[in-house]
Structure formats: structure tokens, C-alpha cells
Write a structure and sequence with these properties.
The complex is a heterodimer. In chain A, the strands form 7 sheets. Chain A has a 7-stranded mixed sheet with strand order 3-5-1-12-9-10-11, sandwiched between helices. In chain A, 28% of the residues lie in helices and 22% in strands. In chain A, helix 11 packs parallel to helix 20 and helix 17 crosses helix 18. By secondary structure, chain A is of the alpha+beta class. Chain A has a domain of 146 residues: Aldehyde Oxidoreductase, domain 4 (2-Layer Sandwich). Chain B is an alpha+beta fold. Chain B has 2 domains: 76 residues, Beta-grasp domain (Ubiquitin-like (UB roll)), CATH 3.10.20.30; 77 residues, [2Fe-2S]-binding domain (DNA polymerase, domain 1, Orthogonal Bundle), CATH 1.10.150. Helices cover 37% and strands 15% of the residues of chain B. A 5-stranded mixed sheet of chain B has the order 2-1-5-3-4, covered by helices on one side. The longest helix of chain B is centred in the C-terminal third of the chain and has 23 residues. Classes of the chains: A alpha+beta, B alpha+beta. The interface between A and B is large, with 55 and 55 residues. Chain A: This is Xanthine dehydrogenase family protein molybdopterin-binding subunit.
């Protein structure tokens, strides 16, 4: 059993737990920012990309002559011109050893595999002139059939159907399986399902995870300056260190000759966790011309070509006994990778494998993903990466089980979840959950939203047949944070580790510089890390300067994603601070003329036990700077570094409750209230945490209600601008009621858990469960996301029209001959 | 090329510009006012919002030549003598920003909103900011920041009257 603190007992120490206003904000609210696109260098040239309008085509010819003659155009390059210099886009996670991985050149010379792929680049003195000239590049394409539909692509082979990459002979990039019986973490799921078919309950459903676009607010931008000893790249990226590695590994330029800087970066959400073709092209062009170059994408280019997220079909089978005890879970995914296997694209569904069982004690579990190549934009991590998909599926299924049993959705969850006194708990997926208290979080969330009153109102509205029906959605989620223990990554065939690095520099004037390998893009590292150092080192918050996002300053790091910065990077920082204190200890003993064993360190000072003698560590830093009087054999520096490799993930959780009103005549959904109680362990800065939760919630709600990347039958992205891709606005959303329970993580010194992705992972099923809950009595048990008014209306009315056996309802059983359920989408009316 | 004369953040400027040049390009590329940013190409996101003669406009939707003779205020011209504008202060106080990319536009639009309606309801704030997209905050703390600024401004006024 792990401890869950009474909120009244958790007294914040000096800095940790305090609502510090962010250090980052001063420059951001005054416009004194350092976005990549703000940079101007002497003689800098601008790039414009020529992109394929076709999803799959051979490049027959490219005529660049008119473009080259255009005003102020310096050069035009095609894939053939860059063949030797452009490097390649890497896949860092071949999920199986025989993964089928198409070559991914930044600019292909002979064939394009998705609409938006770059076929030529124009270099001009201004961005406008480059773009004008790009219009003059004449490209002749021979169109090829395109693999666009995920299910059709999965079923295709060389003889039947369309292949995204005909030379590969298949669209199946990888099949990855986890089986609890084989792994020894549980029993056989087929037996569990067979048993349940005899005397229990079997729930079979097929759910769709629609394709989403991360849609960070700052368009991607890259500047490359080749005019020094090092080639310097500024990029709007989440991963400056990984990017530097990839540049070196694929171009042959020594890593030591490359410096990557991620200055202020305007959001990422996974969308900037990529080594992009545009970065590689800019790097190649700058080297070829010996001139600084800049490329900044338009929003339309961003939506079309920056990697997308989600995009799965999920076939799910849940087995339970008649009293609602779960006995097995089988998951079969089709995951759309798009045209290429992105840097961790194939691994995203695999990350979900460990989370479908969620907080429930399934004794048997089997997970399979088939990763499929199509001629659409590549997919990769998007906030949550694998875990939202898993959480959505299991939380929807638990509601279906509750409906089958005729009990409250929270009752069936509580019956099956891991009890507070059972932590640490090893799951059927082989993960060891560190701590948690689902009972406490759920009790608090119910109280916050007024659960019982809402249920009473729901009954009342149903009884009087109100046009507006009330639904209450539940999501009792958990997730795995802190990517990642390197040993586990190795077992999963990932190409790199999961450690993080930190450095603490004690300056002569008593100030402290902290260097972290985590690279923030809105999360507030500068503030939160200052709080940690201020407390542990006993120096003022204001005296700590956090440096990051520049490989020359931060020479070692694995960047920011997977809710890792605090739980991995923060732990590295704690260890670096502790090394500083230990290096200072013999010097303090020497200067205080005391035995080292008599020294205590607290609140920034060494004191001699039993005396009033003391010495601040900042004064020791000054003494070390002078080095006039150090003990023999002691290094003239307190500066310390630490690299920390986590031994385990950590597992935040929470109970999210959502109340929606559904107008049964129009299908309109109105969110009335959203309350959540998350447990993310100890909190460094509650203000920043609240911001992460709010923003996460809206991204998850947006998946439930509004967002979807849609391609037409020609492979054209028809949601290619902010007119068509529906990001929620302030007017679409509500204010949230959030709170926390605190079960400190046992996997790091600070007792913290990740929070960056929690809201997004939790909220999507809470909202869809609420919508379905509102109209379940009308015969609806599923609505495909996003739950648009049209889809809701069709779900309600196709049922009352009597069309089909269970229109608006997911299929009860799969057809074993096709493996497809076929009826799941009837609420769709064929529209997608 | 067309000659324009205008005032930007209190500074008189004159330039020859291409008629097709957008105001936001003029601010960023000619004046180096990179505090104002470009987030889209369809005038949906509002990141480039500035004030033109005291009213908020999306500067990607105004040609530089249309600003001839006008007074422009950008995010960089708000703080006076090192003192933040109350709305800037409120965004920091309420954690109304994360990555900060939408923030210049969001602050400029919030000021315009409060100029027109010093005591807005939550609904009025949400409707008034509908043309500005934020991907980080979920808008919760942006709404709070505008409410906070409204309260701070009215209490300042009250103090002023009292004195």
C-alpha cells in the first residue's frame, strides 16, 4: 500500500508546492520572444517548397527553368539535386525486427507517397519571391492508385488492392503482440472469452480513433547557418538533441560540427517530436550554398505535412462474469502509419499496449496491433500517444458492461479496479503501478460535480421525455508517464535510451545556472526547475537560471515528450544538486575548521552540529572560484552533472466526470459541467499543473466533439486550414472544476508523476460516455468521434426509424469470416 | 512601391512598400516588431492581432498601405516605462499562457474587449475571444485573466476616484 496524503497535511516547503508565477512569462507577454521565424541573419535566403498535390504518383519530370529565371531566385533543387546531401528521415523505433520500413527521403526524386510531399525547393532572397517562383516549377506526375482507407489497405496485398509502396509487397509494416499467457503475466484470454460466452458476459465492440492534427500554434520554422565552424540549426522542435543526432547520423556531418537550438517554441503536443523533411532540406541547401537559409511553413502546409496523430480502428472483446467481474480483454488494432514510419510512429500503438487494461484487474489480456502503411500524411505521437487510444477503448467498454449489467458505471469500475491497499500492483500487461487511490479520487470527483443530483435529474428528464436529455460521463483513467527506463526501451527494440541529464553550475557571485536536457515548449520548466533547485540547494528562486534547448549549452539530453521532463529530468536535477552539496561538504569542513562528520546541510548552509557556526553554499562557491584556501586534493569546482535513467514509469490517475445536455431533436451537445480529481503525486507548482490539466482537457474534449482530419477519395486533405479543421475556441468551451488527491510516486525522489498528457487521455472517453449516456435509453450505444450534431441526430433517429437491427448501436459480435463488424458505423450514414 | 507614413508603438515611421505587403509582414520584416506573430493563413487564429487606431484588427488581414496615416499599437508598445499593461499583468498572474505564441494576439484582443465592455460576463469574454485560437490553455485561465484585469482596472479606477 502506498500513502495518499491528507491534503491538510501536505504542507508545502519553501518553494515546492507554491503557485510561483512563471519566469517565462515576462518575455512572452511583452513580445520580446525568440521564435525561430523571428531570426534574420546577414545574407539569409528563404525557401519555399513545391509539394505534390497527389497522394501517390511517379515524378515524370520537373522543369525548374522558369522558376530559376524568376526575380531574386538563387537556386531551385529537386530530389535528384539533393540525392547526395539530404540525409534521410529516421525511424527510431522498429517495433519488430522484421518491420517493413519504406525509405523516407526528405525529398524523393522518383515517387511521392502522400499529398504534400516535397518534390522541389526554391531558394530566393525573400520568402515571397521564393513562394512566387515555386508556382513556376512545372512538375509532371504519373498518378498511381493510392491506398487511402485503413481497412482496405490492411487487407491488400500484391495481387489484390492497392499498396502504398508497391515495391514493399505489403501495406503491413508490423504486427506486434502482447499476450499475458505467453508473457506469464496472466492467463489465456481466449479461454476467458470462451468461458464468458458460456456463462458470463461478452462485450464486443469496434471503435474508431479518428485522425487528428496536433495543430501547435507556432508553425514549424527552421533556420540553418553554415557560416561558422559549426553548422547551426535553429528549429521549432521539441527534440533538439535527437534532431542533432539524426542530422549527423544521416548526412555524415560529424555530430560535433552541428549545433541545434530550439529557442522559444510555440507548442508541440508531440507534433514537433519529429526529424522533419523540411529541416533536412534546409540543412542540405544551406550547406550547398554556404549561406544561411530559413524555411517557415504556412498553416496549410503545417496541417497537410506535419505528422498527424491517432487514426486507429479498435476491435475489442471484453469478457466478464455475470456479476460484472472482468475476466479478459482482447484488443486488435489497425493503426494507420500514413506513408512512412515516422520517428516513433510505429511505437505509438505499442505504447498503448500497456494501458488497455487500465486500472482494472483483468486476469487475461491479449493485444495485437497491425501497423498499416497508407498514402496519407505520416502519423506519430500526439499528446498521450497510444494511451488516449487505450483509455478511450477500455473506458467506453466499462460503460457498456455497466449498461449490460444495469448498474451505475462507477459501480462496475469500483468492482474491478485495483484497491488502494494493493499498491504496488503488477498488472496483466506487466507494468508495476507505483501508487494510487482510485477510491479517494472518485469520491472527490463525485462530490465536486454533484453526481447523485445529476443522476436524479437525468432520471427525471428521461421520465418526462424531455427533448433535452442529460448524460453523465465517467472516465477513471490511468496512464504511464516518464518515458522511459532505457532497459524497457531496449526490450521494445527502441533505438535510444530514456535517461535525462542535468547540470548545476555554481557561479562565483552566488547565482546558480541549471542546465537541463529536457527542452520546454510551453510547459514552464524554467519556473518549476527553479523551484526544485531553490528548495534543495537553499538559494533564492530568483537566483536560479534554467538553460535548455541548445545543444551547445545543454550538451546532453533526450528532450521533452511523454510527460518525462519532471519525473526523469527533475530527478536528474535533484541528483546533480545533491552532488554539488557533496562536493561542497569537505570544503565547508575545511573552511569551518570542523570535522566533516559534524556538518549538516539545510536551507542553503552548512552548519557545525551543536554550534552556531555556519557557511552558505553560495559563499563556498565564491571561495571555490578564488581557490585560495581549499583542502588538498579537492577540485576547484562545485559544478556537477547527473544522468538519470528511470527504473520504472509512474502512473498518474484520476476520475473525470462530465455532464452534457443532448438536444434529441437537433443532436446538439452542450457541456454543462466538467469536474476531475487527478492524482499526480506531489506537485511542484499547482498553477502550472492546473494549466496543463485545463489545456489537456480541451484537447481531449476536442477529439470527442470537434476535430477530425478528413481526406477525400482523391487523397486530398479537406481539413487543410483552420477554416476546416475545427480547433475549439473560447466560445466552444467551459471553465473546469479540478482538484487533486496526492499519492506520491515511489519511483522518484520528489514523489511526482507526469501531468502533461493526463487531461487529454482522460477527457475523451468521459465526454463520449456522457453523450452516449444521455441517449442510451433511445437505443444508442455508440457514436463515432467526433460526435457532431449530425452523427448524434442520426444515431437517435436511425434507431427510431427502425432501420437496421441496431442502427446507432455497435455490433454485438464480429463476423469471424471477415474479422470486421461491419455495422459499427451505421450511425455514420456513410459519411466520414 | 507605395509610400506609407504611420505611427507604430509611438514611433513615426515611413516606408515604401509593395501594395501586396500585409501589415503583419510590414511590422515583422520591415520594423522588426517580431512580437506580433503569424499563426495561420486564413485569418482564423488571431495571433497577429494589433490595434489600428485603437481597435483590434488581425494584421494578416490588413494591407500595410491600408494602415497609412494610422496609429498602430502592438504587444511591444503596451508596457509603459517598464510597467506592464494591466492585461499583460493579468495574463501572468492567472497563468493565461503556456507556450505564449497566441498571447500577443490574445492580449491585444482582450484589451479591445475590455475597452468595449469593462465588466464582461464569462460568456461575453468567451464570445469576445472567439476569433483567437489557443492550443495550450484550454482558455480557462485566459478567461480568468480577462476577469482579473477587469477587476484590477475597476479597482484602480475606484482608487483614483477616491483619491
Amino acid at each position: 500500500m502506498t500513502a495518499t496524503q491528507d491534503p491538510g497535511v501536505a504542507t508545502p516547503t519553501a518553494e515546492i508546492g507554491r503557485d510561483r508565477r512563471r519566469k517565462e512569462d515576462q518575455r512572452l507577454i511583452t513580445g520580446r520572444t525568440r521564435w525561430t521565424d523571428n531570426l534574420t541573419l546577414p545574407g539569409m535566403l528563404h525557401l519555399a517548397m513545391v509539394r505534390s498535390p497527389f497522394p501517390h504518383a511517379r515524378i515524370a519530370s520537373i522543369d525548374t527553368s522558369a522558376a530559376k529565371q524568376s526575380t531574386n531566385v538563387v537556386a531551385v533543387y529537386t530530389g535528384a539535386d539533393l540525392a547526395e546531401s539530404q540525409g534521410a528521415c529516421i525511424n527510431a523505433w522498429p517495433v519488430v525486427t522484421d518491420q517493413v520500413t519504406p525509405d523516407h527521403l526528405p525529398m524523393p526524386a522518383d515517387r511521392v507517397a502522400f499529398a504534400g510531399e516535397t518534390v522541389a525547393v526554391v531558394v530566393a532572397r525573400s520568402a515571397a519571391e521564393a513562394r512566387d517562383a515555386a508556382e513556376l516549377v512545372e512538375v509532371e506526375y504519373d498518378e498511381l492508385p493510392a491506398a487511402l482507407d485503413l481497412k482496405e489497405a490492411a487487407a491488400a496485398d500484391s495481387d489484390n488492392g492497392v499498396l502504398a509502396h508497391p515495391d514493399l509487397g505489403t501495406n503491413v509494416s508490423a504486427v506486434w503482440t502482447f499476450d499475458s499467457a505467453e508473457a506469464g503475466t496472466g492467463s489465456d484470454v481466449e479461454e476467458a472469452i470462451a468461458q464468458a460466452r458460456e456463462d458470463g458476459i461478452v462485450i464486443e465492440r469496434e471503435y474508431r480513433q479518428q485522425r487528428l492534427i496536433p495543430a501547435f500554434m507556432e508553425p514549424r520554422s527552421v533556420v540553418v547557418d553554415p557560416t561558422g565552424e559549426q553548422i547551426t540549426m535553429w528549429s521549432a522542435t521539441q527534440i533538439p538533441h535527437i534532431l542533432r543526432f539524426a542530422l549527423a547520423a544521416t548526412t555524415g556531418v560529424p555530430e560535433s560540427k552541428i549545433r541545434v537550438i530550439a529557442p522559444d517554441v510555440g507548442g508541440g503536443f508531440g507534433g514537433k517530436l519529429q526529424q522533419t523533411p523540411e529541416e533536412m532540406i534546409a540543412f542540405a541547401v544551406a550547406r550547398m550554398l554556404g549561406k544561411p537559409v530559413k524555411f517557415t511553413e504556412t498553416r496549410s502546409e503545417s496541417l497537410m505535412t506535419a505528422h498527424h496523430g491517432r487514426d486507429q480502428w479498435q476491435r475489442l472483446t471484453l469478457a466478464a462474469t455475470k456479476d460484472g467481474t472482468v475476466t479478459g480483454l482482447k484488443v486488435d488494432l489497425l493503426a494507420d502509419l500514413g506513408a512512412y514510419v515516422a520517428i516513433v510512429g510505429g511505437g505509438v500503438p505499442v505504447l498503448g499496449a500497456f494501458m488497455f487494461n487500465a486500472i482494472y484487474k483483468f486476469p487475461a489480456y491479449r493485444f495485437t496491433t497491425r501497423n498499416i502503411l497508407t498514402n496519407k500524411t505520416w502519423t506519430d505521437a500526439y499528446r498521450g500517444a497510444g494511451r488516449p487510444e487505450a483509455t478511450y477503448a477500455v473506458e467506453r467498454l466499462m460503460d457498456e458492461l455497466a449498461a449490460e449489467l444495469g448498474v451505475d458505471p462507477l459501480e462496475v469500475r469500483e468492482k474491478n479496479w485495483i484497491k488502494h491497499d494493493e499498491f504496488p500492483f503488477t498488472t496483466v500487461a506487466g507494468m508495476e503501478y507505483d501508487s494510487g487511490n482510485y477510491e479517494a479520487a472518485t469520491a472527490r470527483a463525485k462530490e465536486m460535480i454533484g453526481y447523485d443530483e445529476l443522476r436524479a435529474e437525468q432520471r427525471e428528464r428521461r421520465e418526462r421525455g424531455d427533448r433535452v436529455q442529460l448524460g453523465i460521463g465517467v472516465s477513471t483513467f490511468t496512464e504511464m508517464c516518464g518515458l522511459a527506463p532505457s532497459r524497457i526501451l531496449g526490450q521494445l527494440n527502441y533505438g535510444a535510451g530514456g535517461w535525462e541529464h542535468a547540470e548545476v553550475r555554481m557561479l562565483a557571485t552566488g547565482k546558480v545556472e541549471v542546465v537541463t536536457g529536457a527542452s520546454a515548449h510551453g510547459q514552464g520548466h524554467e519556473t518549476a526547475f527553479s523551484q526544485i533547485v531553490a528548495d534543495r540547494l537553499g538559494v533564492p528562486f530568483e537566483d536560479v537560471e534554467v538553460l535548455h534547448g541548445d545543444t551547445q549549452v545543454s550538451h546532453k539530453g533526450l528532450d521533452t515528450y511523454g510527460s518525462r521532463s519532471l519525473v526523469v529530468g527533475g530527478e536528474a536535477l535533484v541528483r546533480a544538486v545533491d552532488k554539488v552539496i557533496e562536493k561542497a561538504r569537505p570544503i565547508a569542513a575545511h573552511l569551518l575548521e570542523a570535522s566533516i562528520d559534524d556538518l549538516e546541510f539545510a536551507q542553503g548552509s552548512f552548519t557545525v552540529r551543536g554550534t552556531d557556526q555556519g557557511l552558505p553554499i553560495t559563499e563556498i562557491a565564491t571561495a571555490v572560484f578564488a581557490s585560495h584556501n581549499l583542502p588538498d586534493g579537492v577540485e576547484s569546482s562545485l559544478d556537477s552533472e547527473a544522468t538519470y535513467d528511470p527504473v520504472n514509469f509512474n502512473f498518474p490517475h484520476g476520475t473525470h466526470l462530465c455532464a452534457v445536455e443532448v438536444d434529441t431533436e437537433t443532436g446538439q451537445i452542450k457541456m454543462r459541467k466538467y469536474a476531475c480529481c487527478d492524482d499526480i503525486g506531489n506537485i511542484i507548482n499547482p498553477l502550472i499543473v492546473a494549466g496543463q490539466v485545463h489545456g489537456g482537457l480541451v484537447q481531449g474534449i476536442a477529439q470527442a466533439l470537434w476535430e477530425e482530419a478528413v481526406y477525400d477519395e482523391n487523397g486530398t486533405l479537406v481539413t487543410g486550414s483552420f477554416v476546416d479543421y475545427l480547433l475549439p475556441t473560447a466560445a466552444d468551451t467551459i471553465s473546469f472544476d479540478i482538484d487533486h488527491t496526492t499519492s506520491p510516486s515511489t519511483t522518484n525522489t520528489l514523489g511526482t508523476k507526469g501531468v502533461g498528457e493526463a487531461g487529454t487521455i482522460a477527457s475523451t472517453p468521459a465526454v463520449v460516455n456522457a453523450v452516449v449516456d444521455a441517449i442510451r435509453h433511445l437505443g444508442v450505444n455508440d457514436i463515432q468521434m467526433p460526435c457532431t450534431p449530425e452523427r448524434v441526430w442520426r444515431a437517435i433517429h436511425s434507431r427510431s426509424d427502425g432501420g437496421g437491427e441496431t442502427a446507432g448501436a455497435a455490433a454485438p459480435h464480429f463476423d469471424p469470416s471477415t474479422g470486421m463488424s461491419g455495422t459499427v458505423d451505421r450511425a455514420e450514414g456513410g459519411a466520414q | 512601391m507605395t509610400r506609407i507614413n504611420l505611427t507604430v508603438d509611438g514611433q513615426q515611421v515611413a516606408d515604401d512598400v509593395e501594395p501586396r505587403m500585409l501589415l503583419v509582414q510590414y511590422l515583422r520584416e520591415r520594423l522588426g516588431k517580431t512580437g506580433t506573430v503569424i499563426g495561420c493563413d486564413t485569418s482564423n487564429c488571431g495571433a497577429c492581432t494589433v490595434h489600428l487606431d485603437g481597435t483590434s484588427v488581425k494584421s494578416c488581414n490588413v494591407l500595410a498601405v491600408q494602415a497609412d496615416g494610422s496609429e498602430i499599437t502592438t504587444i511591444e508598445g503596451l508596457a509603459q516605462n517598464g510597467r506592464l499593461h494591466p492585461v499583460q499583468e493579468a495574463f501572468r498572474e492567472c497563468h493565461g499562457l503556456q507556450c505564449g505564441f497566441c498571447t500577443p494576439g490574445m492580449i491585444m484582443q482582450s484589451i479591445d474587449l475590455l475597452n468595449n465592455n469593462p465588466h464582461p460576463s464569462e460568456e461575453a469574454i468567451r464570445l469576445g475571444l472567439e476569433g483567437n485560437l489557443c492550443r495550450c490553455t484550454g482558455y480557462h485561465n485566459i478567461v480568468k485573466a480577462v476577469q482579473h484585469a477587469a477587476e484590477a482596472t475597476s479597482s484602480q479606477h475606484a482608487e483614483g476616484v477616491g483619491a
